[in-house]
Amino acid sequence: MARSATLWLAAPSRFAGVRKSRARIAVGLLALLFLACLTSLWSASPPANSSEPAAHADDQRDVTLYTNIVAAIRHGEGYYAAAAEALREGDYPLRPFFTFRLPTLAMVQGHLPEPMIVGLLFVLVAATMLAWGMRLRTALTGWPPTVIALALLAGGLMAFVQAELWPFHEIWAGLFVALSLALRRPGRWMEAAALGLVAALIRETAGLYLLLMALLAWREGYRREALGWLAACAALGIALAAHAFGVLQVVRSLDPASPGWTGLLGPGFFVNAIKASTALAILPLLAAVPLVALSLFGWAAWRDPTGLRAGVTFAAYALVLSVFARPDTFYWGLMIAPAFLVGLVFVPDGLRDLFRPSLDKRRITVTRVTR
After folding, report:
1. CA dihedral 225, 226, 229, 233 (to 10 degrees)
2. By the 8 A CB rule, do 320 and 330 touch?
């Protein structure tokens, strides 16, 4: 079947020219995705922010925790001693060692004035916007879809321009992951791998992103690139080993342990986490559900190495949030929030190319002529 003209994409979507049988299978999978996202209506939700001033401090507990650690470092205290004391004062668990954040971000921030930190955060946001703008300009036709894509990107960056969140690790790690995705090209991966490693050294959950990029590079035959991403994974492993040793020096036998990370909250919680982490927060849940599902579909529809990597990354973190997250760890969604909503700009081409063959009822009539 010949490929039809595109709507917004500069090149045909992944579903252009698929056979009717495969198109109908894909439509069925899309329906299942919608049903899975619909479970958010009865899934656990992130803790709601209180409008009462007296309860606002409790809403900002984690930010206060990391701010206190940075303040202690500025006064000459070592990271692990400062973190242990702050965790105890806030009634946080201290075991296992994952309850301590890696020291990378706090050590850097502890040697910089707050205005400079906030300025660097905004520079990183601007760099992410610029990198994705340049990437999308060649993927889309004309300015209207590009402007829509940038608006969606801004919607994903809503939480990342809140200056008071500068101590929050996922804010920085999520931006570095998004910037890494935008910069990676076939044959040009070193900058992306370096940025991905920075993200993982700030928040170790970005290690999943490093591993996925290594596997995809290997699958596509980019052996040298795959080894580069695996080297980043190895560097993270060494950093985590040193981190575990540092935590061991300050943890006491009676310190509380974490309740674990087997929330099993399901795909609906992923939807709720993305809603809380992006501009979808201003919408009713019933309006946010189809947008989250369509955004995932859009990334699957973009026939491009960046689209593949972004889609696989977002799907993997969706699985992690569905299986391992607790209601109070919804902020894991910030790891993929910056670029997530951009997937909606690929939906018009994807849906048209998918439904056109699946709804095609034309039949071929063979007429036998006897002479």
Report:
1. -160
2. no
Write out the two tokens for 165: 């969140």
- pLDDT on residue 59: 52
3-state class (DSSP) for residue 363: coil
Q: What is the DSSP string of 88-126?
A: HHTT---BSGGGSPPSHHHHHHTTS-HHHHHHHHHHHHH
What is the residue type of 21?
S
Q: Look-up: residue for tokens 């075991």?
A: 95
The four Cα atoms 291, 297, 303, 306 give a dihedral, to 10 degrees, of: 70
> Rounded to an integer, what distance in angstroms lies between the CA atom of residue 262 and that of residue 243?
23
Residue 73 has a pLDDT of 97
The residues near 266 (Cβ < 8 Å, ≥ 6 apart) are 36, 39, 43, 322
Max distance between CA atoms of the chain, in angstroms, equals 101
Name the CA dihedral angle for 209, 214, 220, 224, rounded to a multiple of 10 degrees. Answer: 140
Judged by DSSP in three states, 257 sits in strand
Nearest Cα to Cα of residue 192 among 345, 200, 126: 200
pLDDT in tens, 266-287: 999 999 999 999 999 999 999 9
- Of 348, 26, 305, residue with least CA distance to 138: 305
Per the document, the length of the chain is 371
